[in-house]
Amino acid sequence: MKIGFIGFGEVGYEMSKGLLEDGVKEVFAYDPLYDQDFVKEKANSVGVKLVSSPERVLQPEVDVVIVAVPAHHAYNAWDNIYKHLNDNILCIDVSTASAKVKTEIYEKLLNKEKKFVDAALMGPLQVHKHRVPIIASGDGVDLFIKLMGPYNMNIEKVSEVLGDATNIKFTRSIFMKGVSALLFEVLELAQDLNIGDRVVNSISATIDEKPFEEIINRLITGTAIHSERRVIEMENVINLLDENNKMPVMTNATKQKLISLTEHELKNKFDNQTPEDWKLVIEKINKKVCEENESV
């Protein structure tokens, strides 16, 4: 098995290190900083063969090429190599480029002629290396699993629809990154008021009370009915933040979302009764949005 990496930053380095340890014969890599000593040292330390141009990554007839570059360089990275791809090569993109960009790469550059995989990395590489959980979509996923499973890569097939994996990762990021930002706003205020531990313990008790799926259901269905009065509560919270010289960035966003939900009149649509399933709430919202778009 021969693997080529376009990009030799954290992703290329950590994955290469693990793959070579688990039996991959050779790994070749190109990085724009290939001639820098620190890049050479990293490559030498794990046995990666660093090359001086993108197309040279492909010259040893690699079985798999993995593009691992910053999102805004993904299209150009494929543009630099697509003319040099052999007929049987498996093409994998682990960048955080959007599903739209990855689809353009597949359709415009590869002409749908190569097996292509949209692979989203779902964990810390420094911990897992090449065994990091990966969700993957596209017409090359089955081959990806077949080729790389023996080397202990942890790949879950999402679908053959290119972009599904990236869309899952991005949508999940709304929550994961949003919660992090929200916690900063909560804890900055709580610590100033000397109630940090009590607030954390209170939140923990609520979140840990039920399985997370049940917590989601309760939060969404409850907010559908009570969004209007919660707008007023958020106004009071904003005042508290202002009084303590804290920027109410996330709280303002929460207030605006609650206002938007109130405008959907969900309370009336559910006859002032809490719906049983969060999906019913989202269906009502999406239906109204579709109707409004059609009327424009």
From TrEMBL:
Residues 190-257 form the Phosphogluconate dehydrogenase NAD-binding putative C-terminal domain. SUPFAM superfamilies: 6-phosphogluconate dehydrogenase C-terminal domain-like, NAD(P)-binding Rossmann-fold domains. One of its GO terms (biological process) is L-valine catabolic process. One of its GO terms (molecular function) is NADP binding. It comes from the Bacteria. Residues 2-129 form the 6-phosphogluconate dehydrogenase NADP-binding domain. InterPro entries: 6-PGluconate_DH-like_C_sf, 6PGD_dom2, 6PGDH_NADP-bd, NAD(P)-bd_dom_sf, Pgluconate_DH_NAD-bd_C. PANTHER family: 3-HYDROXYISOBUTYRATE DEHYDROGENASE (PTHR22981:SF84), 3-HYDROXYISOBUTYRATE DEHYDROGENASE-RELATED (PTHR22981). This is 3-hydroxyisobutyrate dehydrogenase. It comes from Pontibacillus marinus BH030004 = DSM 16465.
